[in-house]
Write a structure and sequence with these properties.
By secondary structure, this protein is mainly α. The protein contains 18 helices and no strands. α1 packs across α15 and α8 packs across α9. The structure holds tryptophan.
């Protein structure tokens, strides 16, 4: 018998652990900041509802009913060596590429946690705080070191298995994450910038929204819900057939969205209190925030709590990415899970080295004008994930079709709602994604 999560809560925590990651705490706030806040938030929410949630349900359904790894799950629902296994194979490749740069960023976070713990940010000049990240970029050795530590943690968790590794650690780290975020939210509430932060995120100013903002919102709805590369298929394959997919999917999408919004609220409260620029870009949590922590009362504690929060979020996502190739290879080639975990971990460490060196040694080495780090990021977020998502939605909506959808929504009485869901999966979601791909291609 295949291992299963021991409870529904365990699955929700694991899937939410996968979804809630750097996407929520690092990417979402800086994207919203750059795109003028409220208007971007509204588009993002719409994308989660129309594109993200239906594809999340599709992936969980395929996993739960296929009861196997990314590729074999499709075979089990269709036929042996089905060509529908293609999105599964794409997922395995995407997982390797995503984890390569994700682990490098995970390493930066560990470095900032280390600095917050052992250096006194408040004794550093603003220029010194500002230069922590660029200095880290220049220092190939340090990056490789932190990348190695982060990857080792990920491998250790996955090595222990679905129940003793993934489930156990998500049960500890996810409540820990919610707790720290709660404390930070209370702190943010006492800051002068809280009101402004609230207005910034929830009062839309559509004149600030650009075409890039629209496209980014669609791409990000994939990334933040861990969609398009069979993560949720793999996690869903450990879900017993008794559980209701729509319920868990809604829980996960809701948690993921709330956490992104709260993280944004906390970060912008700090930013506005100190009159800084919300358009800090990718440096927002690594440059803007530490500069503020250095000046704030209780900043040391806040910095430690904040980077611990991000560490937890990044780890629970990274393990879900590694689980995709590990589950696939151990089942497909019947190799022991332990061996595969170590082999994949080492392999991805080395593909990650290319990303870590993109900022220093290999700075001038580019493919299509992108260094390895950006290439892996863009190739997955802009292409592999959306195309994977379209294929998965098509398989679920057209190939499995009405029968699967009726089964998914068996607890729902309303015929109209079922029809709406069917056509969202069949047309709205894939077309939404296709339009974005097309615009990206001509832009
Ligand atoms: N969703 C995670 C985040 O927001 C990242 C992630 C985990 C992911 N698994 C994934 C992204 C699969 C794309 C595909 O940080």
């Amino acid at each position: 018998m295949r291992v299963h999560w021991s409870s529904r809560i365990a699955f929700v925590l694991a899937a939410a652990g996968s979804a809630i990651g750097l996407g929520n705490i690092w990417k979402f706030p800086y994207m919203a900041g750059e795109q003028g806040g409220g208007a971007f938030v509204i588009v993002y929410l719409a994308c989660i509802l129309i594109i993200g949630l239906p594809i999340l349900i599709a992936e969980m359904y395929i996993g739960q009913n296929g009861q196997a790894n990314a590729v074999t799950a499709f075979d089990n629902l269709d036929k042996k060596n089905s060509i529908w296994g293609i999105p599964g194979y794409m997922g395995v490749i995407a997982a390797i590429l995503i984890l390569s740069f994700y682990s490098v960023v995970g390493g930066w976070i560990l470095n900032f946690e280390y600095v917050s713990l052992f250096n006194n940010l408040s004794e550093m000049s603003p220029e010194q705080v500002e230069s922590i990240l660029p200095d880290l970029f220049d220092n190939a050795g340090a990056q490789l070191f932190w990348h190695a530590i982060f990857m080792s943690l990920v491998v250790a968790i996955v090595y222990a298995g679905v129940k003793d590794g993934l489930e156990r650690w998500n049960k500890v780290l996810m409540p820990g994450l919610l707790f720290i975020l709660g404390i930070l939210l209370v702190k943010a509430f006492t800051l002068d910038g809280f009101g402004e932060s609230l207005a910034f995120l929830f009062k839309p100013d559509f004149s600030k929204l650009t075409a890039t903002g629209l496209l980014d919102a669609v791409g990000h709805s994939f990334f933040t819900l861990s969609l398009g590369m069979a993560t949720m298929i793999t996690y869903g394959s450990y879900l017993s057939k008794k559980e209701s997919v729509p319920k868990v999917a809604i829980n996960v999408a809701f948690l993921d969205t709330v956490i992104a919004l709260v993280a944004g609220l906390v970060i912008f409260s700090i930013v506005f209190t100190f009159g800084l620029d919300p358009e800090g870009g990718p440096g927002l949590i690594f440059i803007t925030l530490p500069k503020l922590f250095a000046q704030m009362a209780g900043g040391k504690f806040l910095a430690i709590a904040f980077f611990l929060l991000v560490t937890f979020a990044a780890l629970t996502s990274a393990v879900s990415i590694l689980e995709v190739p590990v589950c696939f290879m151990s089942e497909k080639f019947k190799i022991s899970r332990h061996k595969v975990t170590l082999a994949c971990g080492i392999f991805i460490y080395f593909t990650g080295v290319l990303c870590a060196l993109s900022f220093n040694v290999l700075k001038d080495f580019t493919i299509l004008g992108l260094n390895f780090f950006d290439l892996f990021d863009k190739a997955t977020a802009n292409w592999l994930l959306p195309i994977g998502g379209i294929l998965i939605a098509t398989f679920y909506g057209w190939k499995l079709g009405r029968k699967a959808i009726n089964e998914t929504l068996k607890d729902i009485k309303s015929k109209a709602l079922k029809e709406l869901f069917l056509w969202t999966v069949r047309l709205m979601a894939p077309i939404g994604v296709l339009v974005v791909l097309f615009v990206k291609l001509v832009m």
